[in-house]
Amino acid sequence: LIADLEEEKEFIWFNPKILSQNDASKSISLNHQDIQDAADRLDRFRPYISKVFPQTVRSYGQIESPIIEIKQIKNALANLTGQKLAGRLFMKADSELPISGSIKARGGIYEVLKFAETIAIREGILDLNDSYAKLDDDEFKKTFARYTILVGSTGNLGLSIGIMGAQLGFKVVVHMSAEAKQWKKELLRSKGVSVVEHEGDYGKAVEEGRNSAAADEYSYFIDDENSKDLFLGYSVAGQRLKTQLEEKNIIVDKEHPLFVYLPCGVGGGPGGVAFGLKECFGDNIHCFFAEPTQSACMFLGMYTSLHDSISVQDFGIANKTCADGLAVGRPSGFVGQLMDLLLSGVYTVTDNNLYRYLTLMKDKEDIELEPSALAGLPGIAHILKNGVNYISKYGLEPHMENATHIMWATGGSMVPQEIRDQDYLTGQRLDLDQ
Asked: Is the pTM of this model over 0.90?
């Protein structure tokens, strides 16, 4: 597998260290109550969110995305791969999440809200029993203006933190690599957010942001690599998905397994979602991360058990990918060690295929995504082609026709149309990498 990694080939790895949910929970410091606390906090903020972000009025301030069955692209993927794809395929459209249009709205916005709540309660201007709509008053904005929130980001996390932080009145500084998407930098600046660019990749941006925050007691660094608050913000997605599946009368049990495919960068977003999903569905859910062949850092960290002590650059891989949200060379050690017990596996996908799937998604479903969001699409094909031993291990052979597969579409709704058009044309010109 390391040879395949170095040659930038697609592959799938099944995690041999995964435990049953009951056994895993004994070794994990976070639990269901931590997720519930995060869900309750988000509920307290709903009056404020619905007040300041009109696009959330219909959901009364809940930041959530739909789940959509994608039959046409499932058929197209079957034709492309020459496989029969058993079960149903859905898309979790986090690309449509309100406010910042990506999965990062879950964790990034949550941590900003928790920080604001902590300050306001400490200052005596907010009580847990208040309507949080009052946070839009000038008194709160003046208080928050004393503080600076900093983050290192490839783009989408910076957008979620920048948009929410600026709305509350915080100063926000986003450290990004010079190679991050220009439109994301320009959008942040248009919201009054300071963007600091660095030569080098995501890791350098995080390091600089962390160092800058350490020098100022009124600065707060949101650490994508190690933050439990970010992680728990993402984890609330498990409860939300469970409700959505129940509303669609979709059963999840041993005879009706659920497979979820999550694009992975440093690991916080997909790790938090996977943790929340495992808490809800236990051993009946099988979570896989999807990484670009150039940036398979979570696979590398988990496979070698070296976690954040190893990077793709150590193997001469440049960490250059069109999936900018996944362009991370060194994984989160915090997430990797937790996923050792919970994650079913990791697979990789080439940039060519990301573009090709992007074009197919537009052609077959009229859905526009950014390249990184398509990483989850081939998961169903990988499992059914290469997961025979895995399926047998869990006794799932008789039940795969009843399986539900979900690709987690992590972003795309905020991409400028001219860039969407360019990505579509790129995909049109490419053949599928086998």
From this structure: yes
